[in-house]
Design a protein that fits this description.
The protein has one domain. Helix content is about 25%, strand content about 20%. It has two helices and three strands. Strands 1-2-3 form a three-stranded antiparallel sheet, with no helix packed on it. It is globular. It starts with a helix and ends with a strand.
Length: about 55
């Protein structure tokens, strides 16, 4: 197991490409990818942007 994230890939570009091709969820309000998944009011799943505070489900 690598001692750090950088040792694991060895190629920063590969990390950037993996991030672009992965399943990311962006805030519809500000576009930030800093999104937390939370339990909704009725037991469903909601999302909250940790950058701007916008929430949606």
């Amino acid at each position: 197991m690598p001692g750090s994230i950088r040792e694991g890939t060895g190629d920063p570009l590969a990390v950037a490409v993996a991030r672009q091709t992965g399943t990311l969820l962006d805030c519809p309000s500000c576009g930030s990818s800093h999104v937390a998944q939370v339990l909704g009011d009725n037991g469903g799943i909601s999302y909250v942007c940790t950058a701007c505070g916008h929430s949606w489900s």
